[in-house]
């Protein structure tokens, strides 16, 4: 095989893996997760159901969902040493880097680190998912000179996560909307972060290492970091006109507009974004203030007209998180926390059916032979 003939920049369209976890079915316009339509699931299931579906492979009964909730709560406690390490980081550290550091440090606390069996990997997945709300929220709090907060085990997993972030018990609507955002972020086939984690896992490296690599990948603003960038952009405007002018100015300077475009959906709206837009509408109605929705809709219209580009999930997740009272530096860490369910499923699948990733190159250097 002549490798230069098969070079595809960015591996666009390249099939990198076999998987039974998920598929973006562009013909049917569906996000399939273990045989189910993610958008349909988002109308009738919770994030805990998705954790079960991703890790156990089947849709959970009410009792199984409850068991997942309990399992996650049993792992809420983060080792003191990990918290001490977070405390030692410079105050400029982004919570994504706090998350990466904490997950990396957690490897040392795993007594059977070399055990890659399904059982051991699942145990780790539930442990990490259980610890992530405390790791995530306290990464932000410690670095902002605030006392760490403890989880409230009485609340469901997502409601507690939001409570730890805002310090206030969420209403049912707020908890449902936050839970839905976690569900929608939980798994999405083969984005850069998932590919990264599978590449790392393919050397027989452990789950902590594969997840640490995935946090780094997800942090970039071409991927998960876009949700924070969207909110900073929205914050720069005080009216629909101002927001449109910001976008026009960026387009004039050939800048990318965060929250638009997608490698797979390309010229169509990400179906998850449509769901989050509805959540934004609900929150705007509740607050009697439609400015954020109006700005976002105007941006959506302008980008369709000017570039033929449509929103991805990050575009509408950002204003939803803002209206839920979530500090902007937590948006991408929340995305990663949710995605950890999907990532763990992929790492497990890679360990269980492995071949080392080792591609070739198209050489463009000298040949001074
Ligand atoms: C949940 C998620 O992680 S979804 C992704 C979140 N990321 C973002 O929102 C960042 C903004 N979007 C982008 O940068 C891109 O659309 C990506 C990274 C998501 C996909 O990138 P790719 O598939 O590699 O497309 P690529 O960047 O090559 O863009 C193709 C063309 O569309 C343009 N384009 C793509 N996205 C945008 C955008 N958001 N704003 C302006 N132009 C864009 C590119 O400039 C390029 O134009 P050209 O052919 O004239 O040079
Ligand atoms: O699929 C992608 O490339 C990025 C994305 O939308 C996600 O990870 O949710």
Fraction of residues in helix? 55-70%
Annotation, overall tally of beta strands: 3
Mean pLDDT comes to 97
Main beta sheet: strand number and arrangement?
A: 3 strands, antiparallel
Strand order of the largest sheet: 1-2-3
Distance between the termini: 23 Å
Shape: globular
CATH homology superfamily of the largest domain: Citrate Synthase, domain 1
Q: What is Rg?
A: 21 Å
SS element count, helices = 16
Q: Say which molecules are bound, naming each kind only once.
A: acetyl coenzyme *A, oxaloacetate ion
CATH class of the largest domain: Mainly Alpha
> What fold name goes in the CATH topology slot of the largest domain?
Citrate Synthase, domain 1
Q: From the helix content, strand content and strand pairing, which structural class follows?
A: mainly alpha
What count of structural domains? 2
How would you characterize this protein structure?
It catalyses: oxaloacetate + acetyl-CoA + H2O = citrate + CoA + H(+). GO terms for molecular function: citrate synthase activity. By secondary structure, the chain is mainly alpha-helical. It has 2 domains: 31-220 and 329-352, Citrate Synthase, domain 1 (Orthogonal Bundle), CATH 1.10.580; 226-323, Cytochrome P450-Terp, domain 2 (Cytochrome p450-Terp, domain 2, Orthogonal Bundle), CATH 1.10.230. The chain is 58% helix and 3% strand. It has helices spanning 38-44, 47-56, 62-73, 80-88, 95-106, 118-143, 157-166, 172-185, 192-201, 207-219, 226-235, 240-252, 271-287, 291-307, 313-323, 331-352; strands at residues 22-25, 30-33, 36-37. Helix 2 (47-56) packs parallel to helix 16 (331-352). The longest helix is centred in the middle third of the chain and has 26 residues, at 118-143. The two termini are 23 Å apart. Bound molecules: acetyl coenzyme *A (ACO) and oxaloacetate ion. Oxaloacetate ion is lined by residues 188, 191, 223, 262-264, 312-313.
């Amino acid at each position: 095989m002549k490798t230069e003939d098969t070079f595809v920049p960015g591996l666009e369209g390249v099939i990198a893996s076999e998987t039974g976890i998920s598929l973006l079915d562009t013909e049917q316009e569906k996000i399939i997760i273990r045989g189910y339509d993610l958008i349909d699931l988002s109308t009738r299931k919770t994030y805990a159901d998705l954790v079960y579906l991703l890790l156990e492979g089947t849709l959970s009964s009410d009792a199984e969902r409850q068991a997942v909730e309990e399992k996650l709560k049993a792992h809420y406690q983060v080792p003191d040493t990990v918290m001490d390490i977070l405390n030692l980081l410079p105050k400029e550290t982004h919570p994504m880097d706090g998350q990466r550091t904490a997950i990396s440090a957690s490897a040392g606390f795993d007594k059977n680190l070399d055990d890659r069996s399904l059982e051991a990997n699942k145990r780790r997945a539930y442990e990490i998912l259980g610890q992530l709300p405390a790791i995530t929220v306290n990464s932000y709090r410690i670095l902002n000179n605030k006392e760490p907060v403890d989880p409230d085990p009485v609340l469901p997993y997502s409601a507690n996560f939001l409570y730890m972030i805002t310090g206030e018990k969420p209403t049912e609507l707020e908890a449902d909307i936050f839970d839905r955002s976690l569900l929608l972020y939980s798994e999405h086939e083969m984005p850069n972060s998932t590919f990264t984690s599978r590449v790392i896992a393919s050397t027989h490296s452990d789950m902590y290492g594969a997840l640490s690599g995935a946090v780094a990948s997800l942090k970039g603003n071409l991927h998960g970091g876009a949700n924070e960038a969207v909110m900073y952009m929205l914050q720069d405007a005080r009216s629909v006109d101002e927001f449109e002018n910001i976008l026009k100015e960026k387009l004039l300077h050939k800048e990318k507009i965060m929250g638009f475009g997608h490698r797979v959906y390309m010229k169509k709206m990400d179906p998850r974004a449509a769901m989050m837009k509805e959540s934004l509408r609900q929150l705007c109605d509740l607050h009697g203030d439609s400015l954020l929705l109006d700005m976002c809709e105007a941006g959506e219209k302008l980008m369709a007209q000017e570039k033929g580009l449509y929103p991805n999930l990050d575009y509408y997740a950002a204003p939803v998180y803002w209206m839920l009272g979530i500090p902007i530096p937590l948006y991408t860490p929340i995305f990663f926390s949710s995605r950890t369910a999907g990532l763990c499923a992929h790492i497990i699948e890679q360990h269980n059916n492995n071949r080392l990733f080792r591609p070739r190159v198209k050489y463009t250097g000298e040949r001074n032979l």
